[in-house]
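RETRY 2/3 - previous attempt timed out on the joint model. Re-submitting the same 608-residue input unchanged.
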Amino acid sequence: MSEKFLMKGNEALAEAAIRAGCRHFFGYPITPQTEISAYMSKRMPKIGGTYLQAESEVAAINMVLGAASAGVRAMTSSSSPGISLKSEGVSYIAGSDVPCVIIDVMRGGPGLGGIQPSQADYWQATKSLGHGDFQILVYAPASVQEMVDLMYKAFDKSDEYRMPAMILADGMLGQMMEPVSFPEDNTSNLKEKEWATNGTKEARKPNIINSLLLNPDELEKSIVERYKKYDIIKEKEVLFEDYLTDDADFVVVAYGATSRISKSAVNEARKKGIKVGLLRPKTLWPFPTEKLYQLSKQVKKMLVVEMSMGQMVDDVKLSTKGNCPVEFYGRTGGVIPTPKEVLNEIIKLAEKEGE
Amino acid sequence: MAVVFEKTKGLTDKETHYCPGCTHGIIHRLVAECLEELGLLGTTVGVASVGCSVMAYDYFNCDMVQAPHGRAPAVATGLKRALPQNTIFTYQGDGDLAAIGTAETVHAATRGENITIIFVNNAIYGMTGGQMAPTTLPNQVTQTSPYGRDVHTAGYPIRMCEMLSTLSGVAYAERVTVISPQTIRNAKKAIKKAFTVQKEGKGFSIIEVLSTCPTNWGMSPIEAMGWLKDNMIPYYPLGVYKDVSEEGVFPND
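RETRY 2/3 succeeded.
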């Protein structure tokens, strides 16, 4: 195993992107993700890369569209209000089948909201990051090490499927420090992108990167093709952590920072003799639908814990198809639930069941 | 038999969708001829914008990216940073460049981004059917200024070359038109100069081309050229607004 570093989540994301071959970063300052820009501005000039502070989030995502169209690995990062501004560009990038990575270090909303951690961009990331029929890959790390590991994966899968990938973190993960190690750089075996607009050299026909199809039949056909790709992704790319669910009567479902808190609560509940486990989605799109469906046939109840008023809980309910009741506990606006609060919810769940 | 004239290799064989008498066709040809004559076609990536020229990606015989409305200079920036040796140009209308894309235009210019913008100003939103543009002249009638543009409520039209010429990152800014053989020759010279400025790494270049929109102005093509000459040129005088193409925008490099 390689050397260990003590790093802040945001800085680990930036370093991991560089090691995954990203040499083009376009950013704009916003709390709580600004360390990513600061890190990139320090590192990129030393390694012949591009750090550019754009005039807006809107410009930054369109610079990503341009650089990624040229065939390089490009990235932008922001936090919730900034992601709203990027949604136009993300829709165009998805509609043009261009790969890129977008980081969202979530903070409380709506509007300017607050600057404390939140998970209230779940819907935005998984359902509606822009107009039109499309999906993006959404990875939800729960530790600084996983921020690193999923960053490599995000670039690889984004390239493989020619679509945007998002690292959906939150202010807590972005700001926390943990030891990390970096996998080997995997930049030497990157495949040539034959579709890239990098000049014909008068040796091939022009490449065109475009999302406009005025003929409805053609547009429908292109979207249907894209959805076939999404079906393959749903089949092959789902990631989750399954913790103590084998004998579980109850399952807590949580992702990101909330899953860490929930895991502590699950451990405490186990000490009290409650058979509870944790299902932690690492990909939010594609969602671990099948796994949750299987668990729903085994457990008495599920509890979804989020830093929001309840967004992922909808997907859990859809996955479980009414096989078991799905309860929800959430704190929002930047308030972080404590392990004790989650434990109390688990105890309530078990007690109600015992009545 | 000797060949005396050939269509430029810079254009594809695709038939354009432009209205009869529209000057986009002339401007496309000039851009394509310049790229061909400078030997740049194989290394050029163009950026099409949103508006009448959105389908420029089908007409230019080089790699093309279609950008969101107003964002072409940002997309071009990303392309140029990834491909510093390539020629990158945007082709934008006045609604795209001077309204929704003002920020992207101004900031690409002030960064001295080494790209070329072909800015086609016809004082109207053509593709959506003739609404008031940021460049619509005072008292000009459009679909959304049916009583004529009232500057008290709609403000004044924006002069982009003048504004951009105050920025240190701009190496070359010129306004031309294409309403006569002579002005067309001048326009070609200006476009070629802009691409040369980029090729030599001197900084941001923009060529604003005053253009007609006979369909939405409600005129014949000939009348439209006359209207442009009598009304647009007085408000948007032709000429070179900035030229630091000798020393470039980063003279201490």
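Chain A has two domains: 4-184+206-236, 241-354. Closing ticket.
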